[in-house]
Design a protein that fits this description.
Layout (H helix, E strand, L loop, with lengths): L1 E5 L6 E5 L2 E4 L1 E2 L4 E5 L8 E6 L2 E4 L15 E2 L23 E4 L1 H4 L5 H5 L2 H7 L3 E4 L27 H14 L3 E6 L18 E7 L2 E4 L6 H18 L4 E4 L13 H16 L4 E4 L21 E3 L1 H12 L12 H10 L7 E2 L4 E2 L12 E4 L3 H5 L9 H11 L5 E5 L19 H14 L15 H6 L10 H19 L1 H4 L6 E6 L4 E6 L2 E6 L5 E3 L5 E5 L5 E3 L2 E4 L3 E6 L1
Parallel strand pairs: 9-10, 9-20, 10-11, 11-14, 14-15, 15-16, 16-19, 19-20
Antiparallel strand pairs: 1-5, 2-3, 2-6, 4-5, 6-7, 6-8, 12-13, 17-18, 21-22, 22-23, 23-28, 24-27, 25-28, 26-27
Helix pairs in contact: 5-6, 7-8, 7-10, 10-13
């Protein structure tokens, strides 16, 4: 076993392994290395820098005793894959299902999640997007406080657990997207500072210190994150990465980190012979994010699109506080359904300035849209979800839209369980101040912040899905609605067509109805409580959220809060 570590400022580096410290030898570029033949899979080790340590390996593949324990040698070749026939999955035409491993099942493990894959197969989703799995403080966390970015949380099942889950998904025809965080590391257990200039020294975002992507020593820092991305795609057979909050990446180089990553991932996809996707979370509304490298873009396969969420949420909930203010009224919804974004260079009231640019020419599948996700539920004080009627209407539009739809776990049956913000920091100061930090973070969002304390284990337990709800007729009925919508989307080419210039919409703000045209199909929605008759010359109703829906000489009759997909 050869141990290697980058520590450019150290004058002496040792590896603490097999009950002794062994000196390492300097190599080019600030790297140190030593061979220890007797170290094998599972051997614990750490690095000592100028007498300080031992610290976990910055590229540790396994932390069996948690973030404050030693690293362990992990050999990829020891895992036996059974997905030889898997050729990958393209994002185009797909439906994504976002999940948090710790709350997806009562057990909160990859092994338990494998037992629920049949549910996802019957729902007919194409990808599972797994929230971050890097080791975190304590036993519960959303995952965005991760450190040891090359390792997998032991609470979930460690690296073999993740591989087993990916393998099982592939054998059932489902791709896996992994959520990764490269804009910061968690506040606890981050031991990168002693090794090198991984950080800039200033606050890059609300969540932590900015990563050094363009300062002295940043070549190896960039390599640290790019190699991490390639590891998941290559060694764990992951099909795509969701890149958290890329707007918080501070990079002034001529070639942005995302463009460099895109080129590397494209090359790996060619070598592996399967498509690989990069999905950016960005609040910039900048179409360059998803334009190709040769067109001067950053080369992301797709990006999350908050504007669609905000417009759908406002339409089905009536809320207008905080960032929802500009999205009130059905004309805003009609605009995002046909142009992709609302803020395309116009004024954003929430930001107090102009925001975004036009997405003209961008295919709809490059915009990942949702009715709910972990942020939009979990960043509400009580982690409350949308009620069933709102889900029926919102899902009807989302799953017939030109975008790449994404569901959040439990949404498909109208889960009554909340998804609250939870953490389990070890340090008393971090643990006790977490609630106040969240309150400050959401000042100006229009909430009275009275949330369960994130560190209380009950907060975590309340957030676990209750699969027993599926025995209830109302929950089961909603699940059938979601299944039917996804099946219809896959059966009718008009519904998965990503060309925004082929989508049109008409609205009656006073009558509270909207009709979206997808080719020859009409998706009619009555958001009001009173029945309406829409002047549509339709021949048949393919799917409706509530009965009765009828067609007459006067047009389509819709009861209050109902949706119908019609054909002329």
């Amino acid at each position: 076993m050869i141990f290697e570590v980058w520590a450019p400022k150290a004058t002496a580096v040792e590896v603490d392994v097999l009950d002794g410290r062994r000196p390492m030898f300097p190599r080019e570029g600030g790297w140190w290395a030593v061979e220890v033949p007797e170290a094998t899979h599972g051997t614990r080790y750490g690095y000592v820098l100028d007498g300080d340590g031992p610290y976990p390996d910055p590229r540790t593949r396994r932390q069996p005793e948690g973030i404050f324990g030693p690293s362990a040698v992990y050999e990829d070749a020891r895992f036996t894959w059974a997905d030889d026939e898997w050729t990958g999955r393209d994002l185009r035409g797909s439906v994504i299902y976002e999940m948090h491993v710790g709350t997806f099942t009562p057990e909160g493990t990859f092994e338990a999640a494998i037992d629920r894959i049949e549910h996802l197969v019957e729902l007919c989703v194409d990808f599972v997007e797994v929230m971050p799995v890097a080791p975190v403080p304590g036993g519960r966390n959303w995952g965005y406080d991760g450190v040891d970015l090359y390792a997998v949380n032991e609470t979930y099942g460690g690296p073999d657990g993740l591989k087993s889950f990916v393998d099982a998904c592939h054998r059932n025809g489902i791709g896996v997207i992994l959520d990764v965080v490269y804009n910061h590391l968690g506040p606890s257990g981050n031991f990168l500072h002693p090794f090198g200039p991984y950080f800039t020294g200033f606050s890059g975002s609300y969540w932590g210190e900015a990563v050094n992507l363009d300062g002295p020593g940043s070549d190896e820092v960039r390599r640290y994150f790019i190699d991490n991305a390639l590891q998941w795609l290559r060694d764990y057979h992951i099909d795509g990465l969701r890149l958290d909050a890329v707007h918080a990446l501070h990079d002034k180089r001529a070639t942005h980190l995302l463009a460099e990553l895109s080129a590397e991932v494209d090359a790996l996809a060619c070598a592996l012979g399967r498509p690989l996707s990069l999905i950016a979370e960005s609040d910039l509304n900048d179409p360059r994010m998803v334009r190709s490298l040769d067109a001067g873009g950053l080369g992301m396969t797709a990006q999350w699109n908050d504007d669609v969420h905000h417009a759908l949420h406002t339409a089905v909930s009536g809320e207008s506080h905080g960032y929802y203010e500009d999205f009130t009224g059905l004309r805003a919804l009609a605009k995002v359904l046909t142009r992709g974004v609302l803020h395309d260079g116009g004024h954003s009231t929430f930001r107090g300035r102009r925001h975004g640019a036009s997405f003209e020419g961008v295919a709809g599948h490059r915009l990942v849209a949702c009715l709910q996700n972990h942020d939009q539920i979990g960043n509400r004080p009580m982690g409350d979800r949308l009620p069933m009627t709102a889900l029926k209407l919102g899902a009807g539009l989302l799953l017939t839209s030109p975008f790449t739809p994404m569901l959040f776990m439990g949404e498909e049956w109208g889960a009554a369980t909340p998804f609250l913000f939870f953490s389990d920091h070890v340090e008393p100061q971090l643990r006790e101040s977490e609630d106040e930090r969240r309150r400050i973070e959401f000042e100006g969002f229009g909430y009275t912040w009275d949330a369960p304390h994130p560190s209380d284990e009950k907060t975590f337990q309340k957030s676990k899905l209750d699969w027993g709800e599926l025995k209830d007729e109302d929950h089961w009925s909603l699940l059938c609605w979601y299944r039917d919508l996804i099946a219809l989307r896959k059966a009718l080419p008009e519904l998965s067509d990503p060309r925004l210039d082929r989508v049109s919409a008409e609205v009656d703000p006073d009558g509270k109805w909207l009709v979206m045209w997808r080719g020859s199909l009409a998706v009619a929605v009555n958001f009001g409580t009173e029945s309406v008759t829409l002047p549509l010359e339709v021949g048949s109703v393919l799917l409706a959220s509530d009965e009765p829906v009828s067609v007459s000489a006067e047009g389509l009759w819709l009861p209050g809060q109902a949706l119908a997909i019609c054909r002329p």
